[in-house]
Specification:
Blueprint lengths: L1 H46 L18 H15 L11 E5 L5 H4 L4 H7 E9 L7 E7 L5 H11 L12 E7 L2 E7 L1 H14 L4 E5 L12
Antiparallel strand pairs: 1-2, 2-3, 3-5, 4-5, 4-6
Helix pairs in contact: 2-6
């Protein structure tokens, strides 16, 4: 009888041990699953990136100082117009156009100049026997560039070389820049093409009728 009772107790003890192991295994599985789920969630959160809003960049027609812009345009025009009497045959120097002389070149007074123009420069001949000028203008921010360019197109002084008068007046409006040439027709065309090739913005051509011709032996 004692042996039977001992056998039954041994069987019960083994059953309890097995049940306890099974419970611990299930608990460990549950804990691991929870931990893995948390880790996965945490991993997803760390990979989320906050992107800053993209600010559109404003394209500029030219980069650099206005004098450098003028030099680049003239050099490109020389590559285009290689004729004997082309732009490369005229020795020129730079002249800054300021408010006090704007009326004699651009046809606008000092108040209009201060309102519209950030900077302006001219390539003009070293001697007075050429009717030639290449002018680069940078307008101020916020200016209606089309209206400003039209004002200068109609008012600029094309006949300021004494009794000599030029063949043509051709301009280009691109971005916040205006470039115009007073010279013979081939040079004017070469400068316009140079601006078209160099500018990073769309170029609008500006032409002016030869309303400056007064008649006479030099016209």
């Amino acid at each position: 009888m004692k042996r039977i009772i001992a056998f039954v107790l041994a069987v019960l003890t083994v059953a309890v041990v097995i049940a306890g192991c099974t419970t611990n295994k299930n608990n460990n599985t549950t804990n691991n699953t929870t931990t893995e789920a948390k880790s996965t969630t945490t991993g997803k959160q760390t990979t989320t990136e906050k992107k800053d809003p993209v600010t559109p960049t404003v394209k500029k027609a030219f980069e650099g100082e206005i004098g450098d812009v003028l030099d680049k345009i003239v050099e490109k025009a020389k590559e285009i117009d290689t004729s004997e009497y082309g732009i490369g045959s005229i020795a020129c120097h730079h002249r800054e156009i300021t408010a006090d002389i704007a009326i004699d070149i651009l046809g606008i007074d000092d108040k209009e100049f201060a309102k519209l123009i950030d900077s302006a420069i001219e390539s003009q001949p070293d001697g007075s026997w050429h009717t030639h000028s290449v002018i680069v203008i940078k307008f101020k921010d916020g200016v209606d560039v089309k209206a400003a360019a039209e004002t200068i197109r109609t008012k600029s002084k094309a006949d300021r070389c004494g009794c000599l008068t030029p063949d043509a007046w051709v301009g280009a409006l691109t971005g916040d820049y205006m470039v115009f040439t007073i010279s013979n027709s081939s040079i004017c065309e070469a400068v316009y093409k140079a601006v078209s090739e160099l500018s990073a913005c769309e170029v609008t051509r500006l032409d002016r009728e030869s309303d400056w011709k007064r008649g006479g032996m030099f016209d």
